[in-house]
Write a structure and sequence with these properties.
The complex is a heterodimer of chains A (323) and B (346). Chain A has 323 residues and is an all-alpha fold. Chain A has 2 domains: 88 residues, no CATH class; 221 residues, Orthogonal Bundle (MetI-like fold). The longest helix of chain A is centred in the N-terminal third of the chain and has 36 residues. Chain B is mostly helical and 346 residues long. Among the domains of chain B are: 32 residues, no CATH class; 192 residues, MetI-like (MetI-like fold), CATH 1.10.3720.10. Helix content of chain B is 65%, strand content 6%. Chain B has a two-stranded antiparallel sheet with strand order 1-2. Chain B has a two-stranded antiparallel ribbon with strand order 3-4. A two-stranded antiparallel sheet of chain B has the order 5-6. In chain B, β5 and β6 form a beta hairpin. Chain B starts with a helix and ends with a helix. The N terminus and C terminus of chain B are likely disordered. The chains are: A mainly alpha (323), B mainly alpha (346). The interface between A and B is large, with 62 and 58 residues.
Chain lengths: 323, 346
Amino acid sequence: MLRFLGRRLVAMVFVLFSISVLSFLIFFATPGVDPASRIAGRNADQATLRAVRKDFGLDRPLPVQYGLMMKKLFITRDLTSFVNRGAKVIPQVTEAAPVTLSLVLGAAVIWVVFSIGMGLVAAVFRGTPVDAAVMIVGLIGISMPVFWLGEVVNLLTQSRFHDTFLFSWVPPLGYTPFTQSPFGWFKSLIFPWLTLSVLYIGIYARVLRSALVDAQEEDYVRTARAKGLTERRVMLRHALRTSLVAFVSLFGLDFGALVGGGALLTEVVFGLHGVGKLTFDSLQNLDLPVILATVMYAAFFIVLANALVDLVYALLDPRVRHA
Amino acid sequence: MGGTIAGEAPVRAGDLAAIGGSPWAIARRRLLRNRIAMTMLGVLVVIVVLCLAAPFYAKHVAHSDPFHSNLDGKTIVKGKSVSVMQESSTGLGLGVTPIGPTWDLHHYFLGADDQGRDVAARLLYGGRNSLLIGVAAALLTCIVATVVGLVAGFFGGVVDGVLSRLLDVVWAFPVYLLAISLSTVLIARGFSWGPFHLESGSLLLPIAIIGVVYIPYVARPIRGEVLSLRRKEFVEAAIGLGASTWRLLWSDILRNVITTVIVFFPLVLAIDMLTEAALSFLSIGVQPPDASWGTIILDGQGLLYTRPAVALAPGLAIAITVLSLNVLGDGIRDALDPRAKLRRID
């Protein structure tokens, strides 16, 4: 087990390193792309460009630039923005993180509860119209662009039905910190939660249903039935339990990706200033230090989630440990 | 976004019972008998035909130019001539609002956008780009992923090590973040490298970006399948008979993994179309004056509360197209996957 952990740790560091290099190369070394001309503006003359290059350290060799940036990001932790000169990058990320975390946590609760419910119902009523209806609803959820769904929700709750008793309590778009007002926090996030969870409810309900259906063919389920257990007990204690393994591993990956900024579109549509929005804004004005910081932050969560999932697998299945 | 593919159970190829024709014939019969999948195929065909007919609609039915602003234009509603951009009647009465849906196919069926352009015509033109980018990117993903999966799984060793690590890195790089990073850098300025040069508005850029980011999702399962096929008796027998590497790859391995690729294609296409819409919505996909369903949603964002049709129509178009693709994809998987037969005795 220790060897497995050690190997996993080395792989994690390797992947994080590769991601930092890859994202650095995308922004600093893509052919035809010059960060200096982006900073200086479209029609800057050669002298200005030279001054900008020198000022931002862009005239140094790429490995040196990369090393300096990583040093400022991880060791001295005083990386500053290119666009707002002097603004520290790391506080920006730590300010945005609670917004994203609130959004993703709430949505995760909703999607786990609903998808388990829908998956169970579909599997129990397998082959009936109920099954087909639940799966079609799930597919519709998967098929809608999340930003569009968010706009439809905004149209209904902020405009068309905002004056009726239905949605008059919905606050304007934006985020209220939990520490400031727990109820306000809930009200400001309930629609973003629902919007974000729709896609995942669809995916997870389908995954769970197919795992449950596969489990029905397994010997241990037949044995459980043969013992005379009730259908309910067989479903919940035997089939569901093993089916949740696939569910849990998928959850780890998606949760990591979302906390890392994957909820970007939801954040943009609902005006939440989370990590995704921060990433997007910094991409828009090519604020390279902020981009690198958010990408590394995102990659860290995703790699961590990957490692945790592997660990859970290894705990459940000894064969994985020695693979 | 990647969850749909990651969530699908891997499909095992081969092993189809040889009753009543070749495996392909059995699969085709099963698919034809799947009424929901066939209905959705019909829906898709209608959407594709409508989008292909965009120039015809714009020129001969609506008589509008969907690529030029038409702020001073007039159109006819119920026999009366009205301005496309109307004086605002609500609030302070300042500014202008584009005309809303007239539900008249000849005159601004879905209304106008904030530049007075015909939304219905733009919707059809936008669909062409959305579909084109989706199909091209999905083809790119599937072809490259098949080659990578075959090579990595078949040759193993160092080749596999390098390719797998490469896939790992792209896999660990969040898909949306990779796509958005690449798009931001490339779309604004275009790409030039030696003799290669792509203009910033070129559709090849979103195609390449979307195509590349999903490669690991398809290549990984294919590699796994090739690895297990490699140890199968019929492959060992072929090796024993002295079959060449090409022959092994072509007629023993590829023929057995091609069903997996076929199953993946519509699902990748569905995800590609959603990704294209997201990138275009963030204004780093299809560039103006070209349209795609994503850019029209973006155009409609500012008009959301006054003229919701502009944003609602393209979103519905995406949702219906992607839903059809997903249902059809499920149908194809059920038809090709021998395990589906166990579940549903037919």
